[in-house]
Amino acid sequence: MSTPPFDTVAWFEVATDDPEGAQRFYGELFGWSFETDGGSAEDGLDYRLIRYQGGEAPKGGVYGTKGASPGHAVFTVAVADVAATCDRIEGLGGKTVTKAVGNANGPDFAYVTDPAGNLFGLFTPRP
Fold it and tell me: How far is residue 92's CA from residue 113's CA, in Å, rounded to a whole number?
């Protein structure tokens, strides 16, 4: 997968406690296909990569929350440094909801909110 340009929307995620239902819905609606993300599975997470018809690389994922977090659909922005971007967000009135930096099996990522409370994600692609 090619590295997306920094500071662009590069991924999306649908989080749900019914990943089978989400996979069925979006698969039938848009013709998307799904595959288990091996690194996430090693960490005990249910994360399914989404591919578009004719697309060579995944563009998003379905995250099975097991009820541990609220359902959401978010866009995710590729950034050069997740921790530094979280600091900037907080300086601009937003909040860091959760952050994983130094993740062994996946990219650094965070969920953050803007000053109005809208959730979105950040990640730094692995080289």
Answer: 11
